[in-house]
Amino acid sequence: MEGLKPVILMLISQIALAAANVIAKLAIDDGMSMRVATAYRLIFSSAFTIPLALIFDRYLSTFVLLHLHFNLLLLVH
Prior knowledge:
This is WAT1-related protein. Helix content is 88%, strand content 0%.
């Protein structure tokens, strides 16, 4: 099961991307302006990506910062 995890996640990602493209195509065919559709797409992607970046970057930057301080402490002494 562990070997299938990346495949399943990629499959879910591809299905979500295809669904987003179909929804965008239907909205544009229904009369929505391309500029408005692009703006909505950017707003929704930012609203989803920014919280993830803040969560994961906070953990990663804290780890890197602690590692850096530890290395500097070893260099000073």
